Amino acid sequence: MKQCITVDEQIALLKNHGVSFDLMSEAEAREFLYSRSYFFKIKSYERNYTRIEKDRSYTYSGLDFGHLVELSYIDFTLSRICLSLALSTEHFLKVRLNQLIMNDPKPDLSEVLVRRILNGDTSSIRSNPYTEDMWVACDGNPSIWHLWELLPLNEHIRLYSSYFDYRGERALPSLTCYSSYVSSETLFPMATACSPMSHVLRNSVVNLGGRNTTRR
Q1: What angle do CA 11, 15, 17 make, to 5 degrees?
Q2: Which of 50, 70, 90, 157 is most buried, judging by how many CB atoms fall within 10 Å of its CB?
Q3: Which among 9, 16, 11 has a CA at the least distance from the CA of 59?
Q4: Looking at residue 31, what is its pLDDT?
Q5: What pLDDT does residue 115 have?
């Protein structure tokens, strides 16, 4: 069984693998590992660097703890960008499908889409503790607006596509509709979040050239 190691032991292990502490001191690294991240996550970024096998162990050349920290910031920022895009996409799918249903002459179209998307399988809804109460309230007969709150994103995409499958058409999203939700209020924070990433990719991952660009 693997034993837990202290923060000091974590730093010693990193040093044994050739990680330096020039861009961030050991004291700063100790605080970062203790209160801002955790060892397994930070250590995983080592794999972006060349590993040199040595006497049943390994080491890295030119790798500083500050590099690992910068990569953790990139990872964090990218995850938030992906989350923002996923939420914007999900909202667009709901709004656009609502428009299509309201403009369609077939009065029972929403019921048809519900039957097509569920097809007797409600496992993705029933197994979610966060939406279980709403599902119970539907008594096994949800409306399409219930599905907009109950389905996961991949099922929302399938529900949206099912409209065009039913109509025998190709799904072409309305850019005008989408642009009203992915607006400057959404894009500006994302662009701001991305700006330090290009700096990191140019200067930290490739070559910091002796400058300390690690954010603290």
Answers
A1: 120
A2: 70
A3: 16
A4: 96
A5: 87
18-48 pLDDT, tens digit each = 999 999 999 999 999 999 999 999 999 998 8
Confirm if 92 and 173 have CB atoms less than 8 A apart. Answer: yes
Q: How far apart are CA 15 and CA 154, in angstroms?
A: 44
Q: What does the alpha-carbon distance between residue 149 and residue 142 come to, in Å, rounded to a whole number? A: 11
Six-digit token string for 117:
């998307």
Give the span between the Cα atoms of 42 and 54, in whole angstroms.
22
Residue with tokens 């809804």: 125
> Per mean pLDDT, which range of 19-28, 118-127, 176-185 is the poorest?
176-185
Kindly state the average pLDDT of the residues 121-147: 79
Count of C-beta atoms within a 10 Å radius of residue 24? 22
Token representation of residue 211 = 């400058």
- Contact at 8 Å (CB) between 135 and 68? no
Per DSSP, the three-state class of 141 is coil
- DSSP letters spanning 10-67: HHHHHHHTT-B-SSS-HHHHHHHHHHT--HHHHHHGGGGS-EEEETTEEEESS-BHHH
Pairing mode of beta strands 51-54, 57-60: antiparallel
Neighbours of 18 (CB within 10 A): 19
End-to-end CA distance of the chain: 35
pTM exceeds 0.85 for this model: no
Token pair for residue 39?
């060892």
